[in-house]
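Translate structure to sequence.
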């Protein structure tokens, strides 16, 4: 007897996407190149920072877009830094384009520590920075924000001193001796009234610089 049932449509030969793999179109755009001019790198950096900001605000960062863009901006920034720093034009360039030292430093550290954008795909920008020790965990009692909050309860002058030190420091440009001198000044100011806070400050210094800092003796130890 002849089979009159309708035949099934042929299975599609297109490969199925791997589960969990990011789509190619999720991370569009050209990657920065070392042979680009400073002008082209500058345009790339400014556009990338703005796109990353928009993605953070629109929660696109949950898919890793802001993290990858920040990584690429960090790559472009290293090219500009390596070209301008020997000419002593690096800081002037940052000031000209109104780039905050913290923003520049974090993007560069993310690029240098993650080494590959594949490692941060799918991570939010905060998770990527925490994973590669660019910033402390937001909930960490030793994080800079937590330290400042504690300092404000004990003395406005100390909080302002630490805030100013963090704001003006371009950690990537400082020699180890300059880092030690800066942290030592902060340590001495805190030690005079609240030596218990030195442990938190020193931990933050290691997170920020990824280098050992000089340790002034703490009163009572």
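Result:
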């Amino acid at each position: 007897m002849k089979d009159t049932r309708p035949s099934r449509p042929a299975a599609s030969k297109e490969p199925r996407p791997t589960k969990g793999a990011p789509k190619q179109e999720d991370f569009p755009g050209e990657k920065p190149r070392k042979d680009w001019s400073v002008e082209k790198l500058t345009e790339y950096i400014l556009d990338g920072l703005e796109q990353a900001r928009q993605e953070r605000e629109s929660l696109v960062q949950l898919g890793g877009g802001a993290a990858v863009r920040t990584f690429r901006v960090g790559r472009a920034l290293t090219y500009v830094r390596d070209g301008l720093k020997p000419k002593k034009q690096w800081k002037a360039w940052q000031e000209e384009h109104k780039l905050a030292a913290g923003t520049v430093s974090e993007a560069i550290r993310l690029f240098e520590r993650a080494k590959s954008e594949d490692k941060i795909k799918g991570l939010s920008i905060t998770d990527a920075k925490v994973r590669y020790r660019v910033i402390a965990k937001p909930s960490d009692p030793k994080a800079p924000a937590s330290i400042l909050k504690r300092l404000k309860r004990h003395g406005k002058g100390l909080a302002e001193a630490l805030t100013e030190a963090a704001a003006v420091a371009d950690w990537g440009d400082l020699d180890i001796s300059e880092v030690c001198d800066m942290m030592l000044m902060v340590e001495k100011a805190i030690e005079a009234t609240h030596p218990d806070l030195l442990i938190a400050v020193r931990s933050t210094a290691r997170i920020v610089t990824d280098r050992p800092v000089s340790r002034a003796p703490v009163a009572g130890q």
